[in-house]
Amino acid sequence: MNNTQELLDFINNSKTAFQGANEVKNILDKNGYCEIKESEKWDLKKGGKYYITKNNSAIIAFEIGSGNIEESGFKLIGAHTDSPGFRIKPNAEINVEDHYVKLNTEVYGGPILSTWFDRPLSIAGRVTIKGEDPFKPEVKLVDVNKPVLIIPNLAIHMNRSVNDGYEYNRQKDTLPLLTMANEALEKDGYLIKLIAETLKIEVKDILDFDLFLYDFQKGSLVGLEEEFISVGRLDDLWMVFAGLKALLQSKENKATKVLVALDNEEIGSLTSQGANSSLLENILERITLGLNKDREDFKRALSNSVMISADLAHAIHPNYTEKSDPTNKPKLGMGPVLKIAASGSYSTDSYAAAIFKGVCEKAGVPVQEFVNRSDLRGGTTIGPITAAKLNIPVIDMGAPLLSMHSIRELASVKDNEYTIKAFTEFFN
Ligand code: ZN
């Protein structure tokens, strides 16, 4: 129950990848982890607890093991901080009929668009501000934290066939309403003025922003016995949270424990803070060098390493049982799920699966398996990219979920406990 409320608080606070990475940072700070910068020289100690952040939206935390790193290697748990939704475009205000002001947005990743309609929405993300040196703009995280936006549906009387299936146009149908036109506000730009007021800074100092919409309504428990968790961004902040809990509560270990929370998985990971970059490899090498070891020691350490790529898995849906594979039907509340695909879009093979099954058995946690129906194209995640880049076994898994990529996703309280237990045992 305690872990459930903590998870809800964590996600409620993590409105975008920026706030998510910052939330992880705050928890690490409280638990004695020390921030180190990529630009500094690293002098690391056995048993030391450190983290680095990248782009304010990714974070890698690690506890140096007591063994020789080239022999004991790394134990990694990886997940992603970003979630599908809407990103605000530059010059976003659109004035309609001299009366409404709406915002121009673009879709980020693959959200279920219809779930974003008729809900109070707010704005959060990152703002860049004029600094002393043009090469070093100042960065501030921002959360408007008021329900300033809404995407109104069209009345059914004007779209009689809406319940027969409707194809939403991403440039027309999904633009959120901000206000009614008002001359006094107009001259500075409504959005920038709102951001400046929120941050208590001058409009003229704002150079640019990465702003996203989020569901203003907080997550909650639902179900007859409050056995379900209903909140957005479970994909994949839930696995970030479970990995973080495991990192903090696991025992000191010979291996170096690493929590990897990267950004931009929902748009393919090809950014400097995403999984399809050299970031993770660089940081693991820097850890080895920071312990006064050499490049060969780093390669040896990798050969003794294993990673869990933790993203979510589709549970069987009560209204669409036929969408699941005929023999592999993960259920909510029945434990973490190994994700398997002949195409390699998930990295689990029998070797990686065996490691995870062994860990779960020791932890007393049940394991399930997910494979797509052979006539459905599934998703992918950071697992295969990381396995290919680091040449290590990567267990692709996730806790079971319904409504993936809806503005509110649905999970089970029990699976939160199971997953934290399994991850803790993995680190132990
Ligand atoms: Zn995901």
Topology of helices and strands:
Layout: H1 2-13, H2 17-30, E1 34-35, E2 49-54, E3 58-63, H3 69-72, E4 74-80, E5 85-96, E6 100-108, E7 121-129, E8 138-143, E9 177-180, H4 183-186, H5 190-199, E10 206-215, E11 220-222, E12 228-231, H6 234-249, E13 256-262, H7 279-290, H8 295-303, E14 306-310, E15 313-314, E16 337-340, H9 350-363, E17 368-371, H10 382-390, E18 394-398, E19 400-401, E20 409-412, H11 413-427
Parallel strand pairs: 1-2, 4-13, 4-14, 14-18, 15-19, 16-17
Antiparallel strand pairs: 2-3, 3-13, 5-6, 6-9, 7-8, 7-10, 11-12, 12-20, 16-18
Helix pairs in contact: 6-11, 7-8, 9-11
Residues 80, 235-236, 265, 311-312, 381 line the site of zinc ion (ZN).
Brief digest:
The protein is α/β, with parallel strands linked by helices.
> Whole-number average pLDDT?
96
Bound small molecules, which ones? zinc ion
**Beta-strand segment tally:** 20
| Residues in β-strands, percent | 25-35%
Regions with little confidence, pLDDT below 50 for 5+ residues: none
Task: Describe this entry's structure for a reader.
With 428 residues, the chain is α/β, with parallel strands linked by helices. 28% of the residues lie in helices and 26% in strands. The protein is built from 11 helices and 20 strands. It has helices spanning 2-13, 17-30, 69-72, 183-186, 190-199, 234-249, 279-290, 295-303, 350-363, 382-390, 413-427, and strands at 34-35, 49-54, 58-63, 74-80, 85-96, 100-108, 121-129, 138-143, 177-180, 206-215, 220-222, 228-231, 256-262, 306-310, 313-314, 337-340, 368-371, 394-398, 400-401, 409-412. The strands form 5 sheets. The protein has a 9-stranded mixed sheet, with helices on both faces. The chain starts with a helix and ends with a helix. The model has no long low-confidence stretch (mean pLDDT 96). The structure holds zinc ion. Zinc ion binds at residues 80, 235-236, 265, 311-312, 381.
